[in-house]
């Protein structure tokens, strides 16, 4: 804290007069205080002399102009340099970029390197100069400009590399030249890949040479140069992996195959032989591996089809833990059907999955592990808390837990209940008395499928649930749904009013088919054909159906057959229907078929245009005929 205070400019020292508060640390004071000496000497002016101006971005146009003059580059290239170093410009003045460019060019670094690696310019000038000085100390280097790719590495890594290179004796003077000689690759290319794997210099010299000899005996030199990180593995592991690869049906062996997980080199290469092509490998950095083997292994372990195995693989995003988790769960007695249904849990880290299964094993009254597997989708700390709560709660005359009590009363499998509870974890937090009372009310008045599908209603107090059910039951009778408990009063009142209106039209036991028979004068067979032709009509409110029929028959004098031929009109907006029929009447059109009224806006407008064009042509013919 003392050092920070010393860095703050003198004009910020007057704490009381400036009304300084700790929240300002996140603003201009901190950035102003932490600017480097070089940054504060910049000759680009601030927007004003206030401290708040120090937090703003510098004038972009002026900086772009300087970059363009220094590098003689295009506008697109200067924009690219600016965007790459935009974050640095929030802390350092733009002179940092121009000084770094001048420093790099003074040391013979080409402009192309700056364009390809623009973030190098964000390095503090002093640190960049130190890197360049260290790289010149690397033994046996004819042209230091070739070492420019190492500027992207950290100063600590470069320092370690130079220290090691100075004290070790190796053919060529350093490891870069040694690899170039052994592989027959040009030094600049070796440097390019060495810079991205600078940790290779941390390997002991004997191990480095030994691993390089092993790899060159089995792999192509160009491939070894591109994957130098393989030299960091133990020689025995490299030999073992290369031997396994040689005995496989692979046509080519590459160094990155040495780095993939062991499961990639399993005993099953049948798919490679059958399909007559190379297996699908993916980079181990992405935590995926030999896809063909994994799919075959899953089919064998789960007894599933190739399509099902592919679906599981895609759901788990090719997780590296996939096969290990399947084998672990099978050992614990989890059924293959359960794993197929709960596939996402297979992408959990094996250590986490083992901990979750161990936690579930402590659940009292656990009848079968398969009943609670869906809970593995939760976080470990969530699962521990839920299991602890379930163990401290007793339900029913026989000691059981909330999951089994719910499943036994509602008549579903415990695994189905657990799956829904895992998606709605509040079911474990509802007070015991509310849970039991609400479950009893729902079972008395609602279908069990509806209860399990909509658990949100359990969050309400038993008093509200009972009151809502009583109100809905007066109007709807036995047709009650959980959403009626949790919806706003306005929605419930509107729904009940619509139910009353529909009941007044249909009677106690009348259906929409019987209403068609009575209202349109059809027999039951014709009414059923209307429903079959347009099944969605069954879902339209009967009050709306009545209004549409009244409008078509009473106001427009259409016949019931017109409605039977185009039942879609019953689902169409009555407001739009009236608007279109009025417009058609104005242009002298009475459509024979109601289907045109149900068309899309574009199709309807095209019909109107064609009709008016036709009427215009007839008018001209009549006028000149």
Verbal overview:
GO terms for molecular function: nucleic acid binding. Belongs to the mTERF family. Pfam families: mTERF. It comes from Anopheles culicifacies. This is Mitochondrial transcription termination factor. Helix 9 runs parallel beside helix 10 (155-167), helix 11 (175-183) packs across helix 12 and helix 18 (291-302) crosses helix 19 (306-315). The model is unreliable at 1-57 and 265-289 (pLDDT under 50). The protein has 36 helices and no strands. Among the domains are: 59-243, no CATH class; 506-600, no CATH class. The chain is mainly α and 625 residues long.
Helix and strand layout, with pairings?
Blueprint: H1 2-7, H2 15-18, H3 28-33, H4 37-40, H5 60-71, H6 75-84, H7 95-106, H8 111-116, H9 125-136, H10 155-167, H11 175-183, H12 187-196, H13 205-218, H14 221-226, H15 235-246, H16 256-259, H17 270-275, H18 291-302, H19 306-315, H20 322-331, H21 336-341, H22 350-361, H23 380-391, H24 402-410, H25 414-423, H26 432-445, H27 448-453, H28 462-476, H29 483-486, H30 489-506, H31 512-520, H32 524-533, H33 542-555, H34 560-565, H35 574-586, H36 601-624
GO molecular function: nucleic acid binding
GO biological process, one term: termination of mitochondrial transcription
InterPro entries: MTERF, MTERF_sf
